[in-house]
Protein backbone atom coordinates (compact mmCIF):
# COMPACT_ATOMS: atom_id res chain seq x y z
CA UNK A 1 0.00 0.00 0.00
CA UNK A 2 1.24 3.48 -0.83
CA UNK A 3 2.09 5.71 2.08
CA UNK A 4 0.62 9.23 1.91
CA UNK A 5 3.10 11.52 0.20
CA UNK A 6 4.97 14.08 2.31
CA UNK A 7 3.98 17.74 1.88
CA UNK A 8 5.05 19.07 -1.48
CA UNK A 9 7.59 21.85 -1.61
CA UNK A 10 7.58 21.73 -5.38
CA UNK A 11 5.75 23.95 -7.80
CA UNK A 12 5.89 21.27 -10.48
CA UNK A 13 2.61 20.35 -12.06
CA UNK A 14 1.13 16.87 -11.94
CA UNK A 15 1.45 14.86 -15.17
CA UNK A 16 -0.97 15.97 -17.85
CA UNK A 17 -1.68 19.37 -16.28
CA UNK A 18 -2.42 22.17 -18.70
CA UNK A 19 -0.04 25.11 -18.93
CA UNK A 20 -0.13 27.57 -21.82
CA UNK A 21 1.95 30.43 -20.48
CA UNK A 22 5.50 29.66 -19.35
CA UNK A 23 6.95 31.25 -16.24
CA UNK A 24 8.79 33.69 -18.53
CA UNK A 25 5.51 34.74 -20.17
CA UNK A 26 5.90 32.81 -23.43
CA UNK A 27 2.80 31.19 -24.90
CA UNK A 28 3.00 27.46 -25.69
CA UNK A 29 0.79 25.69 -28.21
CA UNK A 30 -1.76 23.14 -26.98
CA UNK A 31 -3.92 21.59 -29.67
CA UNK A 32 -6.86 21.07 -27.37
CA UNK A 33 -7.02 24.31 -25.38
CA UNK A 34 -5.15 27.04 -27.31
CA UNK A 35 -8.14 27.60 -29.67
CA UNK A 36 -10.16 28.87 -26.69
CA UNK A 37 -7.80 31.84 -26.38
CA UNK A 38 -9.13 33.22 -29.67
CA UNK A 39 -11.81 35.22 -27.83
CA UNK A 40 -9.27 36.96 -25.60
CA UNK A 41 -8.65 40.32 -27.25
CA UNK A 42 -6.39 43.04 -25.91
CA UNK A 43 -9.16 44.62 -23.84
CA UNK A 44 -10.04 41.29 -22.22
CA UNK A 45 -6.38 40.58 -21.40
CA UNK A 46 -5.97 44.03 -19.88
CA UNK A 47 -9.15 43.58 -17.85
CA UNK A 48 -7.85 40.24 -16.57
CA UNK A 49 -4.62 41.84 -15.36
CA UNK A 50 -6.49 44.84 -13.91
CA UNK A 51 -8.72 42.53 -11.87
CA UNK A 52 -5.72 40.60 -10.55
CA UNK A 53 -3.82 43.73 -9.56
CA UNK A 54 -6.76 45.50 -7.95
CA UNK A 55 -7.73 42.36 -6.04
CA UNK A 56 -4.20 42.04 -4.71
CA UNK A 57 -4.18 45.65 -3.54
CA UNK A 58 -7.62 45.41 -1.90
CA UNK A 59 -6.58 42.11 -0.36
CA UNK A 60 -3.55 43.61 1.38
CA UNK A 61 -5.78 46.44 2.59
CA UNK A 62 -8.01 43.77 4.18
CA UNK A 63 -5.08 42.42 6.19
CA UNK A 64 -4.07 45.94 7.27
CA UNK A 65 -7.61 46.78 8.33
CA UNK A 66 -7.84 43.59 10.34
CA UNK A 67 -4.51 44.30 12.03
CA UNK A 68 -5.82 47.76 12.94
CA UNK A 69 -8.90 46.23 14.57
CA UNK A 70 -11.28 47.40 11.83
CA UNK A 71 -12.17 43.94 10.55
CA UNK A 72 -12.88 40.88 12.67
CA UNK A 73 -11.08 38.64 10.18
CA UNK A 74 -9.61 38.70 6.70
CA UNK A 75 -9.05 35.78 4.34
CA UNK A 76 -6.18 36.54 1.94
CA UNK A 77 -6.43 35.25 -1.63
CA UNK A 78 -3.02 36.52 -2.76
CA UNK A 79 -1.38 34.00 -5.11
CA UNK A 80 -4.70 32.72 -6.41
CA UNK A 81 -5.51 35.73 -8.63
CA UNK A 82 -4.50 33.93 -11.82
CA UNK A 83 -6.79 30.99 -11.15
CA UNK A 84 -9.72 33.27 -10.37
CA UNK A 85 -9.14 35.84 -13.13
CA UNK A 86 -8.84 33.17 -15.81
CA UNK A 87 -11.92 31.30 -14.65
CA UNK A 88 -14.07 34.41 -14.22
CA UNK A 89 -13.16 35.82 -17.62
CA UNK A 90 -14.30 32.58 -19.25
CA UNK A 91 -17.80 32.75 -17.74
CA UNK A 92 -20.82 34.58 -19.12
CA UNK A 93 -22.29 37.32 -16.94
CA UNK A 94 -25.45 35.22 -16.68
CA UNK A 95 -23.63 32.25 -15.11
CA UNK A 96 -24.01 31.75 -11.38
CA UNK A 97 -21.02 31.48 -9.06
CA UNK A 98 -21.20 29.63 -5.73
CA UNK A 99 -18.10 30.82 -3.84
CA UNK A 100 -16.23 29.75 -0.72
CA UNK A 101 -14.87 32.59 1.43
CA UNK A 102 -11.72 33.29 -0.65
CA UNK A 103 -13.16 34.29 -4.03
CA UNK A 104 -12.50 38.02 -3.72
CA UNK A 105 -11.55 38.44 -7.35
CA UNK A 106 -14.83 36.84 -8.42
CA UNK A 107 -16.66 39.25 -6.12
CA UNK A 108 -14.84 42.37 -7.35
CA UNK A 109 -15.08 41.22 -10.96
CA UNK A 110 -18.83 40.79 -10.59
CA UNK A 111 -19.27 44.33 -9.27
CA UNK A 112 -19.22 43.78 -5.51
CA UNK A 113 -17.39 46.75 -3.98
CA UNK A 114 -14.39 46.30 -1.67
CA UNK A 115 -16.49 48.06 0.98
CA UNK A 116 -19.20 45.38 0.66
CA UNK A 117 -16.56 42.67 1.07
CA UNK A 118 -15.10 44.34 4.14
CA UNK A 119 -18.55 44.94 5.63
CA UNK A 120 -18.93 41.19 5.78
CA UNK A 121 -15.56 40.62 7.44
CA UNK A 122 -16.25 43.40 9.92
CA UNK A 123 -19.45 41.67 10.96
CA UNK A 124 -21.47 44.71 9.92
CA UNK A 125 -23.51 42.85 7.26
CA UNK A 126 -25.08 39.42 7.15
CA UNK A 127 -24.34 38.47 3.55
CA UNK A 128 -22.68 41.55 2.06
CA UNK A 129 -24.50 41.70 -1.28
CA UNK A 130 -27.67 40.63 -3.04
CA UNK A 131 -26.83 37.43 -4.91
CA UNK A 132 -29.19 38.14 -7.81
CA UNK A 133 -27.50 41.49 -8.54
CA UNK A 134 -24.12 39.86 -9.19
CA UNK A 135 -25.01 36.23 -9.97
CA UNK A 136 -22.72 35.51 -7.04
CA UNK A 137 -24.05 33.68 -4.01
CA UNK A 138 -23.02 34.86 -0.53
CA UNK A 139 -19.68 33.60 0.75
CA UNK A 140 -20.05 30.17 2.37
CA UNK A 141 -17.92 29.22 5.34
CA UNK A 142 -19.40 25.76 5.82
CA UNK A 143 -16.88 23.88 3.70
CA UNK A 144 -18.30 22.42 0.48
CA UNK A 145 -21.94 23.22 1.29
CA UNK A 146 -22.02 25.51 -1.76
CA UNK A 147 -21.18 22.60 -4.08
CA UNK A 148 -24.60 21.16 -3.21
CA UNK A 149 -26.24 24.56 -3.70
CA UNK A 150 -24.57 24.93 -7.09
CA UNK A 151 -25.61 21.44 -8.13
CA UNK A 152 -29.19 22.09 -7.04
CA UNK A 153 -29.17 25.37 -8.92
CA UNK A 154 -27.80 23.64 -12.01
CA UNK A 155 -30.64 21.13 -11.72
CA UNK A 156 -33.03 24.07 -11.66
CA UNK A 157 -31.40 25.54 -14.77
CA UNK A 158 -31.82 22.23 -16.54
CA UNK A 159 -35.48 21.86 -15.46
CA UNK A 160 -36.23 25.45 -16.44
CA UNK A 161 -34.74 24.88 -19.86
CA UNK A 162 -37.47 22.36 -20.48
CA UNK A 163 -40.06 24.55 -18.82
CA UNK A 164 -41.56 28.02 -18.73
CA UNK A 165 -38.31 29.93 -19.17
CA UNK A 166 -36.99 27.80 -22.00
CA UNK A 167 -36.26 30.57 -24.48
CA UNK A 168 -34.28 32.77 -22.14
CA UNK A 169 -32.31 29.92 -20.66
CA UNK A 170 -31.52 28.32 -23.98
CA UNK A 171 -30.32 31.65 -25.29
CA UNK A 172 -28.19 32.30 -22.23
CA UNK A 173 -27.08 28.69 -21.81
CA UNK A 174 -26.56 29.39 -18.15
CA UNK A 175 -24.26 27.28 -15.95
CA UNK A 176 -23.32 27.10 -12.26
CA UNK A 177 -19.72 27.26 -11.04
CA UNK A 178 -19.17 25.34 -7.80
CA UNK A 179 -16.05 26.55 -5.96
CA UNK A 180 -14.22 24.51 -3.34
CA UNK A 181 -10.74 23.94 -1.99
CA UNK A 182 -8.38 20.97 -1.73
CA UNK A 183 -9.39 20.49 1.91
CA UNK A 184 -13.10 20.73 1.14
CA UNK A 185 -12.65 18.02 -1.49
CA UNK A 186 -12.65 15.54 1.41
CA UNK A 187 -16.15 16.60 2.47
CA UNK A 188 -19.08 14.30 1.72
CA UNK A 189 -20.95 17.21 0.16
CA UNK A 190 -18.52 17.23 -2.78
CA UNK A 191 -19.07 13.52 -3.34
CA UNK A 192 -22.85 13.89 -3.21
CA UNK A 193 -22.74 16.87 -5.56
CA UNK A 194 -20.62 15.02 -8.10
CA UNK A 195 -22.76 11.89 -8.01
CA UNK A 196 -25.92 13.95 -8.46
CA UNK A 197 -24.44 16.18 -11.16
CA UNK A 198 -23.24 13.14 -13.12
CA UNK A 199 -26.50 11.23 -12.69
CA UNK A 200 -28.53 14.10 -14.12
CA UNK A 201 -25.88 15.46 -16.49
CA UNK A 202 -26.17 18.89 -14.91
CA UNK A 203 -24.70 22.16 -16.24
CA UNK A 204 -22.22 22.64 -13.40
CA UNK A 205 -18.48 23.21 -13.49
CA UNK A 206 -16.73 22.08 -10.32
CA UNK A 207 -13.90 24.52 -9.69
CA UNK A 208 -11.33 23.34 -7.17
CA UNK A 209 -8.59 25.74 -6.17
CA UNK A 210 -5.92 23.42 -4.88
CA UNK A 211 -3.80 25.99 -3.04
CA UNK A 212 -1.76 23.16 -1.45
CA UNK A 213 -3.04 23.73 2.07
CA UNK A 214 -6.21 23.36 4.14
CA UNK A 215 -5.13 25.55 7.01
CA UNK A 216 -2.18 23.43 8.28
CA UNK A 217 -3.02 20.18 6.45
CA UNK A 218 -1.19 19.65 3.13
CA UNK A 219 -3.09 18.67 0.01
CA UNK A 220 -1.10 15.43 -0.06
CA UNK A 221 -3.07 14.30 2.99
CA UNK A 222 -6.40 14.90 1.23
CA UNK A 223 -5.62 12.78 -1.82
CA UNK A 224 -3.06 10.37 -3.25
CA UNK A 225 -3.85 11.26 -6.83
CA UNK A 226 -4.25 14.65 -8.50
CA UNK A 227 -7.72 15.77 -7.45
CA UNK A 228 -8.92 16.14 -11.03
CA UNK A 229 -8.54 12.37 -11.49
CA UNK A 230 -11.43 11.80 -9.11
CA UNK A 231 -13.84 13.02 -11.79
CA UNK A 232 -13.29 9.81 -13.76
CA UNK A 233 -14.84 7.86 -10.91
CA UNK A 234 -18.02 9.87 -11.29
CA UNK A 235 -18.05 9.51 -15.05
CA UNK A 236 -17.05 12.96 -16.19
CA UNK A 237 -13.86 14.66 -17.20
CA UNK A 238 -11.42 16.35 -14.84
CA UNK A 239 -8.50 18.55 -15.87
CA UNK A 240 -5.65 19.86 -13.74
CA UNK A 241 -4.52 23.31 -14.79
CA UNK A 242 -1.56 25.44 -13.83
CA UNK A 243 -3.57 27.77 -11.61
CA UNK A 244 -0.86 30.43 -11.79
CA UNK A 245 -1.30 30.60 -15.55
CA UNK A 246 -4.29 32.89 -16.15
CA UNK A 247 -4.44 32.00 -19.86
CA UNK A 248 -4.59 28.25 -19.24
CA UNK A 249 -7.23 28.89 -16.60
CA UNK A 250 -9.21 30.92 -19.11
CA UNK A 251 -8.96 28.33 -21.87
CA UNK A 252 -9.79 25.29 -19.74
CA UNK A 253 -12.67 27.03 -17.96
CA UNK A 254 -14.06 28.21 -21.32
CA UNK A 255 -13.95 24.62 -22.52
CA UNK A 256 -15.52 23.32 -19.29
CA UNK A 257 -18.28 25.94 -19.39
CA UNK A 258 -18.98 25.07 -23.03
CA UNK A 259 -19.34 21.41 -22.06
CA UNK A 260 -21.79 22.24 -19.30
CA UNK A 261 -23.62 24.85 -21.39
CA UNK A 262 -24.19 22.56 -24.32
CA UNK A 263 -25.60 19.67 -22.30
CA UNK A 264 -22.44 17.54 -22.13
CA UNK A 265 -22.71 17.55 -18.33
CA UNK A 266 -20.40 18.45 -15.47
CA UNK A 267 -16.64 18.92 -15.56
CA UNK A 268 -14.04 19.25 -12.79
CA UNK A 269 -11.34 21.89 -13.18
CA UNK A 270 -8.55 21.72 -10.63
CA UNK A 271 -6.37 24.82 -10.40
CA UNK A 272 -2.93 23.90 -9.08
CA UNK A 273 -1.98 27.06 -7.22
CA UNK A 274 -0.71 28.34 -3.88
CA UNK A 275 -2.03 30.40 -1.00
CA UNK A 276 0.80 32.89 -0.52
CA UNK A 277 -0.51 34.42 2.70
CA UNK A 278 -1.92 32.97 5.88
CA UNK A 279 -5.11 30.88 5.83
CA UNK A 280 -6.77 33.83 7.55
CA UNK A 281 -5.47 36.67 9.70
CA UNK A 282 -5.97 34.26 12.64
CA UNK A 283 -3.39 31.82 11.24
CA UNK A 284 0.41 31.66 11.37
CA UNK A 285 1.73 29.59 8.44
CA UNK A 286 5.32 29.62 9.77
CA UNK A 287 4.11 26.93 12.20
CA UNK A 288 3.51 24.35 9.46
CA UNK A 289 5.26 25.23 6.20
CA UNK A 290 8.74 26.20 5.15
CA UNK A 291 10.17 29.44 3.84
CA UNK A 292 11.61 27.38 0.95
CA UNK A 293 8.14 26.37 -0.16
CA UNK A 294 6.92 29.95 -0.03
CA UNK A 295 9.97 31.18 -1.95
CA UNK A 296 9.51 28.54 -4.66
CA UNK A 297 5.93 29.63 -5.27
CA UNK A 298 6.87 33.30 -5.21
CA UNK A 299 8.91 32.49 -8.31
CA UNK A 300 5.81 31.48 -10.28
CA UNK A 301 3.64 34.47 -9.41
CA UNK A 302 0.62 34.72 -11.76
CA UNK A 303 0.66 38.51 -11.96
CA UNK A 304 4.32 38.72 -12.90
CA UNK A 305 3.73 36.07 -15.57
CA UNK A 306 0.81 37.91 -17.15
CA UNK A 307 2.67 41.21 -16.99
CA UNK A 308 5.57 39.68 -18.94
CA UNK A 309 3.15 38.36 -21.55
CA UNK A 310 1.34 41.69 -21.90
CA UNK A 311 4.60 43.55 -22.31
CA UNK A 312 6.08 41.02 -24.75
CA UNK A 313 3.01 40.91 -27.01
CA UNK A 314 2.12 44.60 -26.92
CA UNK A 315 -1.25 43.74 -25.34
CA UNK A 316 -0.65 46.34 -22.62
CA UNK A 317 -1.17 49.03 -25.27
CA UNK A 318 1.11 51.57 -26.89
CA UNK A 319 2.50 52.72 -23.56
CA UNK A 320 2.78 49.69 -21.27
CA UNK A 321 4.32 51.63 -18.38
CA UNK A 322 1.36 54.00 -18.44
CA UNK A 323 -1.06 51.03 -18.41
CA UNK A 324 0.59 49.40 -15.39
CA UNK A 325 0.83 52.75 -13.57
CA UNK A 326 -2.87 53.36 -14.21
CA UNK A 327 -3.78 49.93 -12.85
CA UNK A 328 -1.67 50.52 -9.73
CA UNK A 329 -3.33 53.91 -9.22
CA UNK A 330 -6.76 52.32 -9.50
CA UNK A 331 -5.76 49.81 -6.81
CA UNK A 332 -4.72 52.65 -4.51
CA UNK A 333 -7.98 54.48 -5.20
CA UNK A 334 -10.06 51.40 -4.42
CA UNK A 335 -8.08 50.68 -1.25
CA UNK A 336 -8.56 54.26 -0.02
CA UNK A 337 -12.28 54.17 -0.83
CA UNK A 338 -12.73 50.87 0.96
CA UNK A 339 -10.90 52.19 4.03
CA UNK A 340 -13.25 55.20 4.17
CA UNK A 341 -16.23 52.90 3.75
CA UNK A 342 -15.08 50.69 6.65
CA UNK A 343 -14.49 53.63 8.98
CA UNK A 344 -18.04 54.81 8.26
CA UNK A 345 -19.55 51.46 9.27
CA UNK A 346 -20.90 52.47 12.64
CA UNK A 347 -24.33 52.96 14.19
CA UNK A 348 -27.15 52.59 11.66
CA UNK A 349 -24.73 51.24 9.04
CA UNK A 350 -24.47 47.97 10.99
CA UNK A 351 -27.14 45.43 10.04
CA UNK A 352 -29.23 44.50 13.10
CA UNK A 353 -29.03 40.82 13.99
CA UNK A 354 -32.79 40.60 13.70
CA UNK A 355 -32.62 41.38 9.97
CA UNK A 356 -31.62 37.78 9.23
CA UNK A 357 -35.20 36.68 9.88
CA UNK A 358 -36.52 39.01 7.18
CA UNK A 359 -34.53 37.47 4.36
CA UNK A 360 -35.21 33.75 4.84
CA UNK A 361 -38.29 33.67 2.58
CA UNK A 362 -39.74 36.18 0.14
CA UNK A 363 -43.15 35.88 1.88
CA UNK A 364 -43.89 35.97 5.64
CA UNK A 365 -43.60 32.55 7.24
CA UNK A 366 -45.19 31.59 10.61
CA UNK A 367 -42.20 29.59 11.85
CA UNK A 368 -39.76 32.37 11.04
CA UNK A 369 -42.09 34.91 12.68
CA UNK A 370 -42.14 32.73 15.82
CA UNK A 371 -38.35 32.48 15.84
CA UNK A 372 -38.02 36.22 15.34
CA UNK A 373 -40.33 36.87 18.33
CA UNK A 374 -38.32 34.40 20.42
CA UNK A 375 -35.08 36.06 19.41
CA UNK A 376 -36.46 39.50 20.32
CA UNK A 377 -37.45 38.23 23.76
CA UNK A 378 -34.06 36.55 24.25
CA UNK A 379 -32.26 39.74 23.34
CA UNK A 380 -34.47 41.75 25.69
CA UNK A 381 -33.10 39.54 28.49
CA UNK A 382 -29.65 41.03 27.85
CA UNK A 383 -31.08 44.54 28.02
CA UNK A 384 -32.29 43.76 31.57
CA UNK A 385 -28.88 42.37 32.43
CA UNK A 386 -27.19 45.43 30.95
CA UNK A 387 -29.48 47.72 32.95
CA UNK A 388 -28.76 45.72 36.09
CA UNK A 389 -25.01 45.98 35.43
CA UNK A 390 -25.31 49.72 34.81
CA UNK A 391 -27.29 50.11 38.04
CA UNK A 392 -24.75 48.05 39.99
CA UNK A 393 -21.89 50.09 38.52
CA UNK A 394 -23.68 53.30 39.52
CA UNK A 395 -24.15 51.96 43.07
CA UNK A 396 -20.50 50.93 43.26
CA UNK A 397 -19.41 54.31 42.09
CA UNK A 398 -21.80 55.94 44.56
CA UNK A 399 -20.40 53.90 47.44
CA UNK A 400 -16.83 54.67 46.37
CA UNK A 401 -17.55 58.38 46.12
C1 LIG B 1 -17.72 21.80 7.44
C2 LIG B 1 -16.52 22.54 7.94
N1 LIG B 1 -15.53 21.88 8.56
C3 LIG B 1 -14.44 22.56 9.02
C4 LIG B 1 -14.35 23.91 8.86
C5 LIG B 1 -13.12 24.65 9.39
N2 LIG B 1 -12.29 25.08 8.27
C6 LIG B 1 -12.40 26.33 7.77
S1 LIG B 1 -11.40 26.57 6.45
C7 LIG B 1 -10.78 25.01 6.56
C8 LIG B 1 -9.74 24.54 5.55
C9 LIG B 1 -10.27 24.54 4.16
O1 LIG B 1 -9.26 24.27 3.25
P1 LIG B 1 -9.52 24.27 1.70
O2 LIG B 1 -10.79 23.59 1.36
O3 LIG B 1 -8.29 23.75 1.07
O4 LIG B 1 -9.73 25.81 1.32
P2 LIG B 1 -8.71 27.02 1.51
O5 LIG B 1 -9.00 27.60 2.88
O6 LIG B 1 -7.34 26.50 1.39
O7 LIG B 1 -9.07 28.01 0.45
C10 LIG B 1 -11.34 24.32 7.62
C11 LIG B 1 -11.01 22.95 8.00
C12 LIG B 1 -15.42 24.58 8.21
N3 LIG B 1 -15.42 25.88 7.97
N4 LIG B 1 -16.49 23.86 7.74
MG1 LIG C 1 -6.72 24.79 0.31
UniProtKB/TrEMBL annotation:
<keyword id="KW-0560">Oxidoreductase</keyword>
<dbReference type="InterPro" id="IPR001017">
    <property type="entry name" value="DH_E1"/>
</dbReference>
<comment type="function">
    <text>The branched-chain alpha-keto dehydrogenase complex catalyzes the overall conversion of alpha-keto acids to acyl-CoA and CO(2). It contains multiple copies of three enzymatic components: branched-chain alpha-keto acid decarboxylase (E1), lipoamide acyltransferase (E2) and lipoamide dehydrogenase (E3).</text>
</comment>
<dbReference type="InterPro" id="IPR050771">
    <property type="entry name" value="Alpha-ketoacid_DH_E1_comp"/>
</dbReference>
<dbReference type="InterPro" id="IPR029061">
    <property type="entry name" value="THDP-binding"/>
</dbReference>
<dbReference type="GO" id="GO:0000287">
    <property type="term" value="F:magnesium ion binding"/>
</dbReference>
<dbReference type="Pfam" id="PF00676">
    <property type="entry name" value="E1_dh"/>
</dbReference>
<comment type="similarity">
    <text>Belongs to the BCKDHA family.</text>
</comment>
<feature type="domain" description="Dehydrogenase E1 component">
    <location>
        <begin position="49"/>
        <end position="316"/>
    </location>
</feature>
<protein>
    <recommendedName>
        <fullName>2-oxoisovalerate dehydrogenase subunit alpha</fullName>
        <ecNumber>1.2.4.4</ecNumber>
    </recommendedName>
</protein>
<keyword id="KW-0786">Thiamine pyrophosphate</keyword>
<dbReference type="GO" id="GO:0003863">
    <property type="term" value="F:branched-chain 2-oxo acid dehydrogenase activity"/>
</dbReference>
<keyword id="KW-0670">Pyruvate</keyword>
<dbReference type="GO" id="GO:0009083">
    <property type="term" value="P:branched-chain amino acid catabolic process"/>
</dbReference>
Amino acid sequence: MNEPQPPTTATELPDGAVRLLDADGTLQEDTRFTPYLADLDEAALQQMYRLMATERRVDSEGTSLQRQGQLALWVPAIGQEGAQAGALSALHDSDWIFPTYREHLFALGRGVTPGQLFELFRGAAHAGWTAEDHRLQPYTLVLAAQTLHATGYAWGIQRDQAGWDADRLKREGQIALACFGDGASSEGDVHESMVFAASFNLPVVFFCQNNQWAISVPASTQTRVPLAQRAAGYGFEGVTVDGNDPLAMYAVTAWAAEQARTGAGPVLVEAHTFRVGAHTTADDPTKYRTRDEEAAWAGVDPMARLEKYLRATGAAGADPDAFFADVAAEGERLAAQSREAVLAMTGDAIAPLEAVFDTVYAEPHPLVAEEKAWHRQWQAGFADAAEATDAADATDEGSRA
